[in-house]
Design goal:
Elements lengths: L2 H21 L1 H8 L3 E6 L2 E6 L2 H10 L1 H8 L6 E6 L5 H16 L1 H9 L30 H12 L8 E5 L5 H15 L5 E5 H13 L3 H9 L3 E5 L8 H16 L3 E6 L11 H7 L3 E5 L4 H14 L7 H11 L3 H18 L5 H10 L1 H23 L3 H5 L5 H17 L4 H8 L3 H17 L1 H16 L3
Helix pairs in contact: 1-2, 1-4, 1-5, 5-6, 7-8, 9-10, 13-14, 13-15, 14-16, 17-19, 17-22, 19-20, 19-21, 20-21, 21-22
The structure holds adenosine-5'-diphosphate (ADP) and magnesium ion.
């Protein structure tokens, strides 16, 4: 591990320690039992948690506090993402050492710096998680096409399906497949250079390179890859200089028949502010999608996870309930297994259906709450900005000014939440056709009128700033 990385981890763990003191051990354990440092660069701290549920809880209840603490370390922005937790265990051993440090300060700082390193951690951005392999990937009708394309790519890098775009909702196996390709190539074509980047890290590395006048090095690094795996490209949205740079790298890599695979959690045309030429590149060859697993496949994944944790004594009705309720997000489903493991080892009891049902409330219904919160927040910021009442905004009033503001609200709710057009229509009591018209109209206006575009940005800024 580089010294810089160790230093970043120390800063992060100090922030967590302070947070733990402020919110208490129980609260801390509930939300932060598995966190990892993703990056700390340019005053931006990004850390990862294993599932949406944790991200939402932390954003709602603790993010402001973390920011307050972090500002002391010159960190101006803190972002939580759902990550693959590759470094979480590593981080925890780090944190234990920090506890020791409190007791015996100087000596153990040395211990941390002297901690033995694995080369994988040297370059975090291209670290692959060996757990994400083809062997561990359960195949069913919902993902069999994506799986077979991925295996063909892994066996013939650069020669078949280039570039390939994997598209699917969160928690359905995009990162797993992407990394399975990377792991396979690393094992079977040892001379090929495989780069794996979550796009936010790609952006970070890129920004860092520019700030340190090393953009040429960065470009070379990308262009020298034989296989480039780029995860979560929806993150390219609204980042023109990143798009510009990537566009050129893309062309170079394609010309040289280097394999590229991308993953996105939404269709390319729904990635806002993504240059047309890049859109067409992303979808220029093979597109595969991942759908939620059918029950048999979900059952297979669940059984594997339970077996791996040596949990054999579990009710069929519990299993069936989890499959039925949570199979739409495999990550959440696996998060449930972690909870079961924790519960059973802590209490010695076998988890029953009532408990499971209680836990399940934390997932989907909470998500809906969260969604409502966000919609309410957006509505109130917009109403406030234009000095009208939220009730007017939602009313059928046809006054020109009010209906314009209503269109802006429709537009921003669609952009900032996961609401479908029908969901948005329900909020305003209009059809999805009207929703669609409003979006097109605001989009146009935003394109031709820079003042209006700024206005929208300012409103968005306010929405982000207004916590819950
Ligand atoms: P995404 O990137 O689409 O949000 P991930 O690839 O991170 O989702 O998958 C979420 C979790 O579900 C991971 O732990 C992954 O290993 C697991 N998973 C997803 N699909 C499968 C599958 N087909 N078989 C086994 N595990 C899977
Ligand atoms: Mg992912």
């Amino acid at each position: 591990m580089s010294k810089l990385l160790t230093k970043h981890k120390l800063i992060f763990s100090e922030i967590l320690n302070r947070l733990k003191k402020e919110i208490g051990d129980t609260n801390y354990a509930l939300s932060f039992s598995s966190v990892e440092l993703v990056s700390l660069e340019n005053e931006i701290l990004i850390f990862g948690v294993p599932a949406d549920f944790f991200k939402e809880t932390i954003e709602k209840n603790h993010l402001e506090k973390i920011k307050e603490i972090a500002i002391n370390s010159n960190i101006t922005e803190v972002i939580v993402i759902v990550s693959d937790q590759k470094n979480a265990a590593d981080f925890f051993s780090q944190e234990e050492k920090n506890d020791a440090k409190e007791k015996n300060s100087k000596k153990s700082t040395k211990t941390i710096l002297a901690k033995p390193v694995t080369p994988q951690h040297e370059t975090q951005e291209d670290a692959l998680n060996p757990e994400f392999s083809f062997t561990n990937f359960v195949v069913g009708s919902s993902n069999s096409f994506a799986h077979s394309v991925a295996t063909v790519i892994a066996k013939n890098p650069g020669e078949a399906h280039n570039p390939c775009l994997i598209y699917g909702n969160v928690g359905l196996g995009k990162t797993h497949l992407l990394q399975a390709i990377g792991n396979y190539i690393r094992h079977n074509f040892t001379d090929r250079k495989v780069l794996f980047y979550p796009s936010e890290k790609f952006l970070n590395a890129f920004t860092f390179a520019i700030a340190n006048k090393k953009s040429r090095d960065f470009k070379n690094k990308i262009r020298n890859a034989d296989v480039l795996l780029l995860d979560d490209i929806q993150f390219f949205s609204n980042k023109p200089s990143l798009q510009e740079e990537f566009y050129h790298s893309f062309n170079t890599l394609l010309l040289e028949k280097k394999q590229m695979v991308f993953a996105s959690d939404r269709p390319i045309h729904q990635i806002r502010d993504l240059e047309e030429r890049l859109q067409s590149r992303f979808r220029s060859n093979m597109i595969v999608d991942l759908q939620p697993p059918e029950p048999e496949m979900a059952l297979g994944i669940l059984h594997n996870a339970l077996n791996k944790n040596s949990i054999t004594d579990i009710d069929t009705e519990v299993i069936n309930y989890i499959v039925e309720r949570l199979r739409y997000n495999i990550r959440d489903m696996l998060g449930f297994v972690s909870r079961i493991v924790g519960y059973q080892s802590l209490t010695g009891n076998i988890v029953d259906l009532i408990t499971i049902k209680q836990w399940a409330m934390d997932y989907s219904p909470k998500k809906n709450n969260q969604r409502r919160n966000t919609v309410d927040k957006i509505l109130s910021v917009i109403a406030n900005y234009y000095d009208i009442a939220v009730t007017e905004l939602k009313s059928k009033k046809r006054n020109r000014r009010i209906s314009h503001v209503r269109h802006i609200a429709i537009y921003l709710i669609k952009e900032l939440t996961r609401c479908s057009q029908t969901d948005v229509g329900d909020i305003f009591n209009v059809t999805h056709v009207s929703v669609s018209k409003a979006i097109v109209q605001i989009d146009k206006e935003r394109d031709i009128d820079p003042h209006f575009a700024d206005e929208i940005e300012e409103i968005k800024e306010r929405i982000y700033q207004k916590g819950d």
